[in-house]
Specification:
Structural class: alpha/beta
Number of helices: 7
Number of strands: 7
Shape: globular
Family: Belongs to the cytidine and deoxycytidylate deaminase family.
Keywords: Hydrolase, Metal-binding, Zinc
Distance between the termini: 41 Å
Largest sheet: 5 strands, mixed
Order of helices and strands: HHEEHEEHHEHEHE
GO cellular component, one term: cytoplasm
Cofactor: Zn(2+)
Radius of gyration: 17 Å
Organism: Paenibacillus amylolyticus
């Protein structure tokens, strides 16, 4: 096999970087990494965690907030409990905080996990034109997909992607 055949495609390359970035997270529930890409140029990286200089979840524990949402599926209403840590700034939010709007215009975001509703809202207004993710976040999928379609933002899941082994952790829901 030649060296060219062994070369990773761009989606794999950038998602591998997002997973490597996620290893900086100290969240015991989920490690998430995000990268901003313009064409083939990497412009920024971020991961989920507490604000700089503030104790994180591994030091102080998670600050879990519970919310209930009415979900209608096939005409059936169901109350769905959603838990989230409010100590942690999400990787996508950190990426937006630490990159410039001018760099985001027309760019792609590679993120290890499908954005939640809040992050999707922020990304939809950020200037990016594509979001590529690996792990699903089914609690918000239908709402997020619908919004991305309305905004004309490409929203892709990498189904056959395999993360680098050294980046994997056990995640809790």
């Amino acid at each position: 096999m030649s060296a060219i055949e062994l070369r990773k495609d761009w989606d794999t390359y950038f998602m591998d970087i997002a997973y490597m970035v996620s290893t900086r997270s100290r969240c015991p529930r989920r490690h998430v990494g995000a990268v901003l890409v313009q064409g083939k140029k990497l412009l920024g990286t971020a991961y989920n965690g507490a604000p700089m200089g503030v104790a994180d979840c591994s030091e102080e524990g998670c600050m879990i907030s519970e919310e209930y949402e009415l979900v209608v599926t096939d005409g059936q209403e169901e109350m769905v409990k959603k838990q989230r840590c409010i100590r942690t700034i999400h990787a996508e939010q950190n990426l937006l905080l630490f990159t410039d709007r001018i760099d985001r215009e027309g760019s792609s975001v590679y993120v290890t996990d499908e954005p939640c509703w809040t992050c999707a809202n922020m990304l939809a207004n950020s200037g990016v034109t594509e979001i590529v993710f690996h792990r699903s976040y089914p609690k918000d999928t239908s709402k997020v997909k619908n919004m991305m379609q309305q905004k004309g933002i490409s929203f892709r899941k990498l189904d056959n992607y395999q993360p680098p082994r050294e980046t994997m952790m056990t995640v809790s829901n």
